Amino acid sequence: MSTSPFDLTGALALVTGSSRGIGNALAAGLAQAGATVVLHGRDPYALEAQREDFAGRYGEDRIWAVPFDITDESSVVDAMDSIESRIGPLDILVNNAGVQHRVPLVDLALEDWSRVLATNLTAAFLVGREAARHMVQRGHGKIVNIGSVQCDLARPTIGAYTAAKGGLRNLTRAMAAEWAQHGLQVNAVAPGYIHTEMTQPLVDDEAFNAWICGRTPAARWGTVEDLTGPVTWLASPASAFVNGQTIFVDGGMTAVV
Ligand code: NDP
């Protein structure tokens, strides 16, 4: 039996938005640490392809896929109940799914503001609430909310995202305020600028790339692998007395002006 405080063998983890991007890498990190993982997204075909790929790497019995829309309350309630009854008691929730929408505030439609808030903030409350209802009863559980440097800093054209991520930082504190006494640890990881398929055009943009490398003390973009260690730590017994914190994984960007 492992004595490592980072070992997740036997734990069940749900990572929202793990059909691609950062969530997919975070799910792989948790699986590598020994967890059984529930992959998630809305598109059932993309999800099934990832389930098959993960099952090949980590074993058929340790990988599940449950599609649902995190902005729809009844879908969230049904899916979370179904995970608990069909798969097992959830030990780890990573609220990762998110959307971006770039437009100046004066041109921002209420519908787009609401969609960004619903996906990046309200959904973390909804999925977190359903997970915590079970975790609180059992006296343990780990929730990791995925923020961004916009938890703390603004940039033009992403006002709704900034408001949502700032709210997510304080929601993390609110969850810890109520649930820490029941044995839960609730924290957030706030990634800096991460080189992914989605940000490849920004990496290829010479001026933007130079700004990122100049503005970041580590002088480079982050990678999805830079995020798996911190998230796995916050999902593991190694972080048993860490609560309500937002850990910036940004190469030092938010530490300097
Ligand atoms: P992607 O767009 O690559 O992936 C988003 C994931 O969320 C997909 O699996 C998508 O699946 C799912 N999703 C989106 N909306 C919903 C919904 N309503 N219900 C269920 N699932 C949904 O995102 P990233 O990997 O880039 O970002 C992941 C997180 O990291 C976000 O919270 C983002 O804010 C944060 N982040 C990203 C950074 C970056 O550089 N990329 C930097 C800092 C933070 P489907 O479309 O099938 O529903």
From TrEMBL:
Pfam families in UniProt: adh_short_C2
Alphabetic keyword roster: Oxidoreductase
InterPro entries on file: NAD(P)-bd_dom_sf, Sc_DH/Rdtase_CS, SDR_fam
Keyword Oxidoreductase included in the entry's annotation: yes
GO MF annotations in UniProt: oxidoreductase activity
Entry keyword NADP: no
Family classification: Belongs to the short-chain dehydrogenases/reductases (SDR) family.
PANTHER family to which the protein is assigned, alphabetical: 5-KETO-D-GLUCONATE 5-REDUCTASE, OXIDOREDUCTASE
Name used for this protein in its record: Gluconate 5-dehydrogenase
Organism, as annotated: Sinomonas atrocyanea
